[in-house]
Amino acid sequence: MSTRPHAVNTPMPADPRLLADIGGTNARFAWQAGPGAPLQDVRTLATADHPTLEGALRTYLADTGRTAPPRCAIGIANPVHGDQIKVTNNHWSFSISALKAALGFAELVVINDFTALALALPHLQPHEVRVLPGGPQQAEAAQAIGVLGAGTGLGMGGLLPLKLPDGTLHWAPIEGEGGHITMAPEAELEIGVLRFLQGQLQGRVSAERLLSGMGLENLCDAIAHVTGQAPHIGERTAAAISQAGLAGTCPVCVQVLETFCGLLGSVAGDLALLLGARGGIYIGGGIVPRLGEFFDRSTFRQRFDNKGRMSVVTRQVPVFIIDAAVSPALLGASQALR
Q1: What is the pLDDT of residues 113-123, one digit of tens each?
Q2: pLDDT tens digits along 187-197
Q3: What contacts 121, CB < 8 A, 6 or more positions away?
Q4: Which CATH fold would you assign to the domain 17-120+327-335?
Q5: Is 81 exposed, middle or buried (0-12, 13-18, 19+ CB in 10 A)?
Q6: CA dist., res. 331 & res. 241, Å (int)
């Protein structure tokens, strides 16, 4: 008779945590009962509607009928260095230590939002990602991964594979502000766009100035100036430009989207070279998933691959589009608490 003990299904100890993904326009929140538990009570609040991050956190807790848990993790679209945070693309600023004390958190982790998104990549479900046609359809296992995304701003990050002494694979995130690299045009129209924006911005033009919501607006102004064509839209907003470009009702807006896709391809290819990202490049953010087939047919992949002598490298890198109903950065933020 075996004396082997029977397995007992003991419930996971409660370890609730509050998760946040803070962008320039929207702040997304979720509740998680513990490590690996599904996200609950996912809510999105407009940053413009709340004077402070603390106020938005309290609104979320009140709306969901919860009290502050012991632990909280926040991914935020901003460099995270030291205690004081001033968000790049909205009016929020706060002290990490003061926020921790005000809400009574025992642990508060604040990381860059694309570090959070990078941490989520190994946990994405098949229905949350699709591979871009025209390139490799499968990534190499246990190789570096890059991620970038255009929304209110432009974010970048990555993961490096580290094999631990026991043979298990650990992913180390890379935190940076790659969205603020200098933009390098290639096509004649892009050179004219750059010159126009150098005058408007009094000098340097970063990638974010073109590859973001405000970037679509900047591109619209610049292309209209360079070509001498007026855009046929009611208002010059990223949403209106995208809608008219996708519908084909405004030639300038079509050029804006085509230029956006080409420039993003160049930047994404640079990121692939920088990281040696044979594990793939992932594209998140709010803009690209909405472009759908327009993006698939664009020059993105051609520009991604067009790296001269190093094209042999980029041609081997698959590109994946993240299109998840719930911000993966929330799940990535939870990984930072482990």
Answers
A1: 999 999 999 99
A2: 999 999 999 99
A3: 145, 147, 159, 171, 282, 328, 332
A4: Nucleotidyltransferase; domain 5 (3.30.420)
A5: exposed
A6: 31
